[in-house]
């Protein structure tokens, strides 16, 4: 779907006595927030094609200018980390940290930890009161569908690690790595959306040919963030409080994980490959999964021991997130308008 399928051809019009003009597609103009009187910048390629984009707005930071984070000192733990992550996620390539008081070893470790959790970012300059970070990723190389598929693999790995904890009755060895990998991909996803919202040509190259899809992708990323948090918390709880072998609630939890894993794969597939029939099947399966009652949540059953109850609560919240993604899969299939199905009345 591109621009709601308008014609790609534009007739050349006379403008005044000696000038000619062509109109711009309305969806593109709206996505670029263009108004009559705004300036457009043109670049001509060797093959004669033209590249155009809105002219820079006076007062707005231009590309290549470092985003400056300046303070007398960074005393509160976590603030510097979040500032760096935030600057990366909204699209800054260069981030400069300046302080009046030299950074403490704790804050330097926090800075390095933030850098380690962001794909493509490195420290390029370091002084006692000044540090410069630089991103080296080409955003056009990371498509939104590709990154969502990667997140699906990470979420599946979370569930498989939980299954392994229940099978071995031992602590998880992969939880920190999965958390770090999930955080990296999610931050890059958010960054891609911010960049795409400002550069329509980039949006098309990374998989969002219609400007209205960017909002849809943002909802998807939010759901993936929530799933990563829920699955990560459930894995840590199970790993820290491994259920005993004779705990029946743990067996039910393992079976539920298998169903949740299958639904996760189906939901992402339905979203990536719009089909109304498939999306409706996935949506129905999500409703069945939501209605599943496990022993840890049964009001008439015995209270479970160990970590089964809190882990189950977290995973059932994850099932609710998948239901939201299943709804989006239906919306996307309907928007594609490629097929019609008949639903029998009850």
Shape: flat
Strand order of the largest sheet: 5-6-8-7
Distance between the termini: 34 Å
Q: What is the string of SSEs from the N terminus onward?
A: EEHEEEHEHEEHHHHHHH
Instruction: Quote the average pLDDT.
Output: 84
What does this 3D model show about the protein?
With 346 residues, this protein is an alpha+beta fold. The protein folds into 3 domains: 13-54, Pemi-like Protein 1, Chain: D, CATH 2.10.260; 67-135, Translation Initiation Factor IF3 (2-Layer Sandwich); 142-336, Methane Monooxygenase Hydroxylase, Chain G, domain 1. It is built from 10 helices and 8 strands. It has helices at 26-31, 79-89, 105-116, 144-168, 175-198, 200-205, 213-240, 248-272, 276-290, 308-336, and strands spanning 13-15, 19-21, 40-44, 50-54, 67-71, 94-99, 121-127, 130-135. A 4-stranded mixed sheet has the order 5-6-8-7, covered by helices on one side. A two-stranded antiparallel ribbon has the order 1-2. It has a two-stranded antiparallel sheet with strand order 3-4. A hairpin with a 2-residue loop joins β7 and β8. The model is unreliable at 1-6 and 296-304 (pLDDT under 50).
Quickly list its features.
Translation Initiation Factor IF3, Pemi-like Protein 1, Chain: D, 346 residues, 52% helix, 12% strand, Methane Monooxygenase Hydroxylase, Chain G, domain 1, 4-stranded mixed β-sheet, alpha+beta
């Amino acid at each position: 779907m591109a621009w709601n399928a308008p014609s790609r051809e534009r007739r050349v019009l006379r403008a005044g006595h000696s000038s000619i003009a062509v109109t711009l597609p309305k969806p593109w103009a709206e996505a670029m927030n263009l108004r009559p009187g705004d300036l457009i910048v043109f670049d001509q390629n060797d093959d004669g094609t033209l590249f155009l984009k809105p002219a820079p707005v006076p007062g707005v930071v231009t590309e290549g200018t470092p985003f400056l984070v300046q303070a007398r000192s960074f005393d509160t733990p976590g603030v510097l980390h979040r500032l760096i992550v935030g600057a990366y996620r909204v699209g800054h390539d260069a981030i400069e940290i300046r302080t009046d008081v030299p950074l403490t070893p704790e804050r330097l470790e926090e800075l390095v930890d933030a850098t380690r959790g962001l794909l493509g970012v490195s420290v390029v300059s370091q002084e006692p009161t000044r540090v410069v970070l630089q991103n080296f990723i080409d955003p056009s190389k990371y498509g939104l569908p590709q990154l969502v598929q990667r997140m699906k693999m990470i979420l599946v790995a979370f569930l498989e690690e939980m299954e392994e904890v229940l099978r071995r009755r031992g602590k998880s060895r992969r939880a920190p790595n999965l958390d770090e990998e999930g955080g990296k991909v999610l931050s890059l996803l958010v960054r891609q959306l911010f960049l795409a919202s400002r550069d329509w040509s980039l949006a098309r190259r990374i998989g969002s040919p219609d400007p209205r899809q960017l909002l849809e992708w943002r909802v998807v990323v939010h759901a993936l963030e929530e799933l990563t948090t829920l699955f990560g918390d459930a894995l840590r709880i199970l790993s820290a409080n491994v259920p005993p072998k004779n705990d029946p609630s743990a067996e039910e939890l393992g079976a539920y994980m298998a169903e949740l894993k299958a639904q996760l794969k189906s939901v992402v597939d339905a979203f990536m490959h719009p089909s109304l029939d498939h999306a409706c099947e996935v949506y129905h399966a999500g409703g069945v999964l939501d209605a599943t009652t496990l022993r840890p949540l049964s009001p008439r059953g015995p209270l479970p021991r160990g970590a089964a109850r809190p882990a189950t609560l977290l995973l059932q919240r994850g099932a609710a997130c998948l239901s939201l993604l299943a709804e989006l899969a239906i919306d996307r299939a309907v928007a594609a308008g490629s097929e019609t199905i008949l639903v029998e009345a009850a």
